[in-house]
Specification:
The protein is 36% helix and 27% strand. The chain is α/β, with parallel strands linked by helices and 251 residues long. An eight-stranded parallel barrel has the order 1-4-5-6-7-10-11-12, surrounded by seven helices.
Length: 251
């Protein structure tokens, strides 16, 4: 089994780290820079910061915060929210972000994936996909922080972003986000069968068992979580120790 990654996710709204359930009912949970420093010191493999209101508010992502973060941590930082052009990507890369995560802009202008990969390499592009189970029995891709349902079917879109040059997929099930009731395991296994690039599992982590299951049965390459870290329920060192005890290879 390849080495699996543990990635805390920090949703930022109005300059504060927040967490909600199913993308709503947001509550402030701490300072973005201090939390990032804490997680890095505890052994997080990477950090993901998402400016969750940037696209809806039609503004650029928080460059100043990225600069403060990269000065405080020594692990890779992925940044998303409000990224709509190569200029936006260049600004965030110059601020220190290792990767950018794009969602709504990729749906609206798929060529942006190709352009970022061509300029910075596939490793710099994370295709974020927020999925919702639709009335027609298919998984659809949403945009604008989960507020709009696109015409994209999940697995077809996953194949397309890979073909266009995305280096990883960050998939979140809206139904599971923040619930701490586990990830949709069969869905992640199907996604792993659909693409050959790494899949980061997001949405639903509530226990060590949940994370172990998505990394094994769900075949995710990394587990992203927020609530369990923000509220101190499962410290990263404890999580990694217990995953190793289950035979899962983590750093």
């Amino acid at each position: 089994m390849a080495v699996k990654r543990i990635i805390p996710c920090l949703d930022v709204h109005g300059g504060k780290t927040v967490k909600g359930v199913n993308f709503v009912d947001l509550k402030e949970v701490g300072d973005a820079v201090e939390l990032g420093r804490k997680y890095a010191s505890e052994g997080a493999d990477e950090l993901v910061y998402l400016d969750i209101s940037a696209t809806v508010e039609e503004r650029r992502t928080f460059t100043g915060l990225v600069e403060r973060l990269t000065a405080a941590i020594d692990i890779p930082l992925t940044v998303g929210g409000g990224i709509a052009s190569l200029d936006d990507v260049a600004r965030l890369r110059d601020a220190g972000a290792a990767r950018v995560s794009i969602n709504s802009a990729a749906i609206l202008t798929p060529q942006l994936i190709d352009d970022i990969a061509a300029r910075y390499g596939s490793d710099a592009v994370v295709a974020a996909i927020d999925g919702k189970f639709a009335a027609d029995g298919t998984w659809r891709v949403t945009t604008h922080g989960g507020t709009r349902i696109s015409d994209k079917e999940l697995f077809a879109w996953a194949r397309e972003v890979e073909q266009r040059g995305a280096g990883q997929i960050l998939f979140t099930s809206m139904e599971h986000d923040g619930t701490r009731k586990g990830y949709p395991i069969e869905l992640f296994a199907q996604l792993a069968d659909t693409v050959s690039i790494p899949v980061i599992a997001s949405g639903g982590a509530g226990s060590v068992a949940d994370i172990a299951e998505v990394l094994t049965s769900g075949r995710a390459d990394a587990a992203l979580a927020a609530s369990i870290f923000h509220y101190g329920e499962i410290p990263i060192p404890v999580l990694k120790r217990e995953l190793r005890a289950l035979g899962i290879d983590v750093n």
